[in-house]
């Protein structure tokens, strides 16, 4: 299937770029004089291909999720909007205001964290982002938009975050609002009370391992702060029927061996949804590119992760080792003791 309502009613905007649906897609550069992005030549061509039943390369994340039995954004859109061609009208917005972040996760880039710029220059000779700070200056009328997802960077650090919330404050009862955060920054208390007025509110917090692994992967001693903040959010939101609290774990080479323990840990929060999804990019951190000898060592009881793990390698494990060693050297970091560290050490002997 290639048809997706998002090509008619959804917009993803990151600094300087746009796409339908979400950041999983390859984004297009925003034309200097473009204001009606839904009717841009990019969208028109995409809709034409979908109606012709052509395979859309940019939609590979949804294709992969559906293949693994994971609910995709395309399936969710069809459930929500139907399987017939909708009118061209902006109903969903996925927006990142800038690349300001207080962390530089190993699976990230300078496009999503300004702290990555120097490391990319040392690893690759240049950075993905042309400047350290990039921001989205696009003005979008959010009056009639039903669903809004705010990402980053770290959105709670963006100087545009609170002004944006203030802009929609009086219409929260009509909005389904989602915020994706690294959990290190608390939302201000008065805003928490406002968010309870949303038609529906989702707070997604990224946690990518047990304490030592998470801190290593995120390059910061932040795990305890995140859990402290999570407990506050849980107290505030867990009894609200219009609020979804979610922990998102992006499964990668560094945390694969801890999945069962992570799942067990967050089962202590009965009103929190734990979501785990396999990392697709950067490929060097993808679990499918682990050597078979290591895959045999890891106990994973989550079917869709197991299916992804058993896919064929697309790049040599040596590319991960080279990347891993360079980052450790640049950041003066050491992988915590685990079956992964033991395996890597054995390779070096």
Output the CATH topology.
TIM Barrel
Strands in their spatial order, largest beta sheet: 3-2-1-4-5-6-7-8-9
Instruction: Name the CATH class.
Output: Alpha Beta
Count of distinct strands: 9
Class from helix and strand fractions = alpha/beta
Order of helices and strands: HEEEHHHEHEHEHEHHEHEHHHH
Domains (count): 1
Write down the Rg. Answer: 20 Å
Q: Give the % helix.
A: 25-40%
Give a brief rundown of this model:
With 349 residues, this protein is α/β, with parallel strands linked by helices.
Question: How would you describe the overall organization of this protein?
Answer:
With 349 residues, the chain is an alpha/beta fold. The chain has one domain (91-348): TIM Barrel. Helices cover 35% and strands 14% of the residues. It has 14 helices and 9 strands. It has a 9-stranded mixed beta sheet. It is globular.
């Amino acid at each position: 299937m290639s048809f997706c309502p998002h090509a008619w009613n959804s917009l993803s905007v990151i600094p300087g770029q746009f796409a339908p649906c979400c950041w999983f897609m390859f984004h297009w550069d925003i034309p200097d004089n473009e204001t009606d992005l839904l009717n841009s030549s990019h969208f028109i061509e995409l809709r034409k291909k979908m109606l012709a039943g052509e395979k859309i390369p940019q939609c590979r994340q949804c294709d992969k999720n559906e293949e693994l039995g994971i609910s995709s954004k395309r399936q969710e859109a069809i459930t929500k909007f139907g399987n017939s061609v909708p009118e061209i009208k902006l109903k969903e917005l996925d927006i990142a205001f800038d690349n300001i972040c207080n962390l530089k996760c190993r699976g990230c880039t300078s496009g999503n964290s300004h702290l990555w710029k120097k490391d990319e220059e040392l690893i690759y000779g240049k950075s993905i982002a042309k400047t350290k700070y990039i921001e989205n200056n696009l003005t979008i009328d959010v009056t009639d938009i039903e669903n809004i997802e705010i990402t980053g960077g770290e959105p709670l650090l963006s100087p545009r975050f609170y002004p944006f919330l203030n802009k929609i404050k009086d219409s929260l009862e009509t909005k389904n609002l989602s915020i994706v955060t690294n959990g290190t920054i608390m939302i201000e208390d008065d805003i928490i009370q406002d968010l309870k007025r949303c038609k529906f509110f989702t707070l997604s917090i990224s946690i990518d391992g047990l304490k030592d692994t998470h801190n290593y992967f995120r390059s910061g001693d932040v795990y305890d702060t995140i859990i402290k903040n999570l407990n506050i959010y849980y107290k505030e939101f867990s009894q609200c029927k219009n609020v979804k609290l979610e922990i998102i774990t992006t499964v990668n080479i560094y945390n694969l061996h801890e999945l069962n323990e992570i799942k067990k840990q967050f089962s202590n929060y009965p009103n929190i949804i734990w979501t785990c999804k396999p990392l697709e990019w950067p490929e060097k951190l993808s679990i499918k590119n682990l050597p078979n000898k290591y895959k045999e060592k890891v106990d994973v009881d989550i079917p869709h992760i197991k299916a992804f793990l058993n896919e064929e390698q697309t790049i040599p494990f040596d590319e991960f080792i080279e990347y891993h060693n360079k980052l450790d050297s640049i950041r003066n970091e050491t992988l915590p003791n685990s079956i992964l560290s033991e395996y890597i050490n054995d390779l070096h002997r």
